[in-house]
Design a protein that fits this description.
Layout: E1 2-6, E2 11-15, H1 24-32, E3 40-44, H2 50-59, E4 65-70, H3 73-85, E5 92-96, E6 111-116, H4 132-138, H5 145-155, E7 156-167, H6 171-180, E8 183-192, E9 203-210, E10 217-218, E11 222-223, H7 234-239
Parallel strand pairs: 3-4, 3-6, 4-5, 6-7, 8-10, 8-11
Antiparallel strand pairs: 1-2, 7-9, 8-9
Helix pairs in contact: 1-2
């Protein structure tokens, strides 16, 4: 196990050396969420708890509660360890369970906001990780995108928001599944590795509104790096600064 940190040591994150390890995706999504006073937030597929912890680190004075749901027992235990290491057990909690049985894990429409960094890849696509923990976290083996969206729609209040990060090339798939779950995409931000006229977007950040109307806001593009093989962009650097 490794003991990593964010925000100049302000946040500690224990991770399994050869299992699932969080990436920039989680940092991007945590800072995409718009937090309001007394929000109750649900993190679906929380992994090591990193998104929940960033939200609590940034917005502890606002957030009423952040709950992370994780199906893998080893990761759920790790997330609890991380909450304890950062003194977040009060407003933060971890529930071990299957989001396909979301009705057994939470009451309907119990949360103001849902956040989710779901597995991106189908079981037969992408680079298959030999480590079972990492494989289950990255591939849609235990649950599909539609399962995560359905769980989000069940748990979020009417008019509440649902925020996801997903591969940009699968944007149409996401919008189609979201609409089936009465989640209307209201904000989209494309994420690029670096500015270049021919470089395609790698990821997309999406905010949906439960039973929302039509109309979507396209936010300015986000660049992770200043240039190819360069340093983090000023925007990305801001996401790593301590409070």
């Amino acid at each position: 196990m490794s003991r990593d940190s964010l925000f100049d040591g302000g946040l500690i994150c224990y991770q399994h050396q050869k299992g699932y390890r969080f990436s920039i995706d989680s940092v991007l999504l945590a800072h995409f969420v718009e937090v309001r006073p007394q929000d109750r937030i649900l993190d679906l597929g929380t992994g090591s708890g990193i998104i929940s912890m960033i939200l609590l680190y940034r917005w502890r004075d606002r957030v009423h509660e952040v709950c992370g749901i994780e199906i893998q027992q080893g990761l759920a235990d790790l997330a609890r360890k991380n909450f304890q290491a950062n003194g977040l057990e009060g407003p933060g909690k971890i529930v071990q369970g299957d989001i396909q049985k979301i009705e057994t894990l939470t009451k309907p429409e119990a949360y103001d906001k849902i956040v989710c960094n779901p597995p991106f890849y189908s079981p037969a696509s992408g680079r298959i990780n030999r480590n079972p923990e990492a494989q289950l976290a990255r591939h849609q083996i235990l649950a599909t995108l539609e399962d995560f969206l359905s769980a989000a729609a069940f748990a979020v209040k009417n008019g509440g928001t649902v925020s996801f990060i997903y591969p940009a090339g699968l944007l149409c798939e996401f919008v189609s599944f979201a609409q089936k779950c009465c989640l209307e995409v209201k904000k989209i931000q494309l994420v690029y590795s670096y500015p270049h006229e021919t470089a395609p977007a790698r990821l997309v950040l999406l905010q949906c509104l439960k039973n929302g109307g039509t109309g979507v806001e396209i936010l300015p593009p986000f660049y992770v790096y200043c240039q190819k093989n360069g340093e983090f962009s000023s925007e990305m650097q801001r996401f790593y600064r301590k409070n």
